[in-house]
Amino acid sequence: MGRALSAHLVEQGHQIVVLTRSGQGHKDLPKGIQLIEGDPVEGGQWQGAVRGCEVAINLAGESIFSRWSKKKKEAILASRVMTTRRLVEALEERRGEETLLISTSAVGCYGPRGDEEVDEESLPGDDFLAQVAVRWEQEAMKAQDMGFRVVIARFGIVLGKGGGALAKMLPAFKYYLGSPLGSGNQWFPWIHIKDLVRIYSFFMKNGKIKGPFNCTAPRPVTNRQFCETLAQVMGKPLLLPPVPGFLIRMLLGEFGSMLLTGQKALPKRLQVLGFKFLFPGLKEALEDLLW
């Protein structure tokens, strides 16, 4: 997400400062992108660079895609809450200046909701990821108390080329090993990365926008529908039965249980404000990414 967003903003004429733990792996960056090294969880010299930025974008967070030990859960929480806290501390130097903070969250904040449609007015859930998101958002909203404009971008599953969730799925489908998880009826809130970076530009250009936004495509699908559509686009029929839910839970624990639930999250506020999705439907999104 970070690379795609940086490239998009540079194309629009913005100067970008990117905080990275290490400069390695960031060669051949487009002109207009400056790297600074630092640990976003810890305060440091990097915070001084925030002073000159009119827009601060927080994308940091430990990956959730593995079995959750106690240590892993602590890292998931700390990487989100502490990074946001350090960023808001750095924004203190911009008091009185027009500033926008776009902080990441996730539609997992609503918790498992079955077939219920959820939008930005829906209440949060009480499972682990939902409570992580609640605390994450609370840290970001402290910047609003300081007089800054704050937007919370609640992501769905981001579909892009060369990485992320789609890259993890493709090998199985390529070799006819793809199949739904559990019942396959759990909702799969997704978004094409091209629409997601456009949403960020939308936030930046509309100075009165603030608060939480579901950053998901307007046509969510179930896990089964996603698998069927991906197989169709790849020309690879689904041959295997669904992976039993008990097996997923046994192998992946609490994270496995999360894979068997979902949210039918809708981008109500974006649509009310007139944002136009390039890829509202899954088939067209996957064709763009895979063909």
Please, could you describe this protein's structure?
The chain has 291 residues and is α/β, with parallel strands linked by helices. The protein has one domain (2-290): Rossmann fold (3-Layer(aba) Sandwich). Helix content is 41%, strand content 16%. The protein has 10 helices and 12 strands. The chain has helices at residues 2-11, 46-49, 70-91, 128-145, 164-174, 193-205, 223-234, 245-259, 268-272, 282-290, and strands at residues 16-20, 33-37, 55-58, 100-106, 117-118, 149-155, 157-159, 187-188, 190-192, 211-215, 221-222, 264-265. The strands form 5 sheets. Strands 3-4-6-10 form a 4-stranded parallel β-sheet, sandwiched between helices. A two-stranded parallel sheet has the order 1-2. It has a two-stranded parallel ribbon with strand order 5-12. Helix 1 (2-11) packs across helix 6 and helix 7 (223-234) packs across helix 10. It is globular, with a radius of gyration of 19 Å. It starts with a helix and ends with a helix. The model has no long low-confidence stretch (mean pLDDT 94).
Q: Which percent bin holds the helix content?
A: 40-55%
Counting H and I runs of at least 4 residues, what is the number of helices? 10
Question: Order of strands side by side in the largest beta sheet?
Answer: 3-4-6-10
Categorize the overall geometry.
globular
- Domains, number: 1
Order of helices and strands: HEEHEHEEHEEHEEHEEHHEHH
Number of distinct beta strands: 12
Low-confidence stretches: none
CATH homologous superfamily identity: NAD(P)-binding Rossmann-like Domain
Main sheet properties: 4 strands, parallel
% residues in beta strands: 15-25%
Structural class, by secondary structure, is alpha/beta
The overall pLDDT, averaged over residues, is 94
What is the CATH class name? Alpha Beta
Q: Distance N terminus to C terminus?
A: 20 Å
CATH topology: Rossmann fold
CATH architecture: 3-Layer(aba) Sandwich
